[in-house]
Amino acid sequence: MTTIWASAKANSRTKTYADYAKPLWQRYILNTEAAVILGLLVVALVASVMVRNFASDITLYYLLRDVTAILLMALPMTLIILTGDIDLSVASILALSSVTFGILVQNGWPVPAAIVGTLLVGLVCGAINGFLVTVVGLPSLAVTIGTMAAFRGIAQGILGTKAVTSFPVEWTNLTSIKIPGTGIPVLTILVVVLILVFAVLMHFTAFGRGVYAIGLSTEAAAFSGINVERTKMILFLLSGVMASLAGIYLTLKTNTARAENGTGLELTVIAAVLLGGVSIFGGRGSMHGVIAGVLLIGTIESALRLANVTSDVSRIIVGTLLVVSVVSPSFLGWLRGKPKRPTSPGIETQAILTKS
Amino acid sequence: MLFHTTGRRVGAATALALSLALVATGCASSSSPDSTDGASNSGDLTITFLPKNLGNPYFDTSSTGGKAAVEEIGGTFAEVGPAEAAPDSQVPFIQTAAQQGVSALVISANDPTAVGSALKEARDAGTKVVTFDSDTDPEFRDLFVNQADSVGIATVQVDMIAEQIGDKGEIAILSAAANATNQNAWIDLMKEDLAKNHPNIKLVETVYGDDDDQTSFDKTAALLQTHPNLKGIISPTTVGIAAAARYLSTSDKKGEVAVTGLGTPNQMREYVEDGTVTAFALWNPEDLGYLSAFAAAALVDGTITGKEGDTFKAGKLGEFTVGADNTVLLGDPFEFNKDNIGDFDF
């Protein structure tokens, strides 16, 4: 990608890229991420004024606790979707991890050892996905639909309809204690650290640029020396481990290890990532958009619940928002006065040139 | 030139966004008054029902009873709930109820422990917690309203079959899974009751349909073949009774062999109407919701604390006493027959 970039730039000093011809403020304001962040602020503001009990520490506390598992899975999911792939098995890895964690603790493992053991299970799940996608060369959609069923099936096979509910109190309490004087759960610090790690990985490393390049054009990326298989394998491994971590968190938060834990959560995660402005076709998106997307869904649901609006209505609203966010890149493209935005992977690398 | 076009488009988009925002906030303001009013006006009684999931006819019926009771008491009723019955899907709704400061939360728990810490937080915040239909671990709630006890369930089924076959002849039981704890407890109690009070009724076989429609259907067919003198079948499971009734309704034994047990009106309606089934039993979810709301109100106003021996009045249902383990029993199961089945939709 960088090579194409440099040569295109060298070729014509008189030509510029349409995207970069805009004043800086427009480039920062007129994008999906900014719209999502604005949406988040507007929703929070409107809810604070109109919904009783919304503007309080406790709202923030519950919101952060509720989105933690989703955020943990959304971080690697962002990178995977950036490459043009998808991982539908995350919620099932979460369930399998929850069950593994429960069984290990029940059999007398100390919690730290059980956490390590569980993360290894997540790693193995990720490796299976990665192997099937990169070595066997199957499409990730098909692979992870399969493993989505398989991993949850294994979880149900191990624990059946039973549940493990005997976790040490000091560990379950860990999910509920707050930073003194604030409404922020202590574990949010860990989440923020992980967000920073992923943001740096995504935006400030060669690996991260490789991820974008693969999403824009796998062939071009491969020809520019990016190891596509290795990159994808690492992403699925990360996804497995993070889903596993989310599983441990959810298990401790609810003090319940069950094969049904996190049912349907993969769609919430993917919805949040797409809402945050990551293109489902790959190659476009940013971490701050995804974080805002996760928080936006959480805030809308929290505000609607407080207003006693039924869950069906909040689903309709979140669904509509998702459609809007997927459509909005084309809309924003039109807004910038550009020709119809290309939507298939690979086309974006072709420089769109206009007269300055 | 380019900038000019962009500017106009930005203007158009801003206008669109603003109008959308206005519409959205308009919606919010029109929906909030009835729902949030009174939620935090201290002194007002607010009772929130939290079923396992929304769109479930059984819980629609229990909430109807709950709403009637809350209106009778003069409080504010609300029903909230998740779309699916996942183990922890009720947690955000419990948190919200605590945040709203509702007086009492009436919940049918999807999981006995997964909702525990959220319920504990709600109780710490001053919300009374009543479970109904499906209990949590006892430490997480103030009171459990039990729909029916084992003895009552066993007795009503034996009484129904005795009445329907003239208190003598061969009967069989079509149960769920062979190791289902509650089923086996009921069957043991039924055997005791039969031996003690109905010496002329002979239980010839107990078969297991595994709560699977097809298996239960086949087992019914087999029962009728192996026991030509069979007079009645008791199926203490909603899947079993419906399958047995479906088999009988098209067989030549229709009207000769009685079927009864535990069923829901919607599943059994056509068989009651075509005469295959005379009567069957279940608790009445509407009464269950009604009683739960009164129990919640009694906890809030301090009439009861939830300990054994406390008594409170529950409107048209009369007076109730709290039993062991902070439990209130709704009473004997409710009998559905041709005359009353039209009143129920669950």
From TrEMBL, chain A:
InterPro entries associated with the record: ABC_transp_permease (IPR001851)
Domain of life: Bacteria
Entry's transmembrane regions: 28-51, 63-82, 88-106, 113-138, 184-204, 211-228, 234-252, 264-281, 287-304, 316-335
Keyword flag Cell inner membrane: yes
Gene Ontology molecular-function annotations: transmembrane transporter activity
Protein's membrane topology: Multi-pass membrane protein
Locations listed in the record: Cell membrane
Record keywords, A-Z: Cell inner membrane, Cell membrane, Membrane, Transmembrane, Transmembrane helix, Transport
Short name of any one Pfam family annotated for the protein: BPD_transp_2
Main location, first listed in the record: membrane
CDD domains to which the protein is assigned, alphabetical: TM_PBP1_transp_AraH_like
This protein's record includes keyword Transmembrane helix: yes
GO CC terms of this entry: plasma membrane
Protein name listed in UniProt: Autoinducer 2 import system permease protein LsrD
Automatic annotation (TrEMBL), chain B:
GO cellular component terms, semicolon-separated: outer membrane-bounded periplasmic space
Localization, UniProt: Cell envelope
One GO molecular-function entry: carbohydrate binding
One Pfam family this sequence matches: Peripla_BP_4
GO biological process, one term: rhamnose transmembrane transport
Residues making up the signal peptide according to the UniProt record: 1-28
Classification via InterPro entries: Bact_Solute-Bind_Prot2, Peripla_BP_I, RhaS, SBP_2_dom
Domain (Periplasmic binding protein): residue spans on this chain: 47-302
Main location: other
UniProt keyword Protein biosynthesis, yes or no: no
Keywords, ordered alphabetically: Signal
Top-level taxon: Bacteria
Protein name: Monosaccharide ABC transporter substrate-binding protein (CUT2 family)
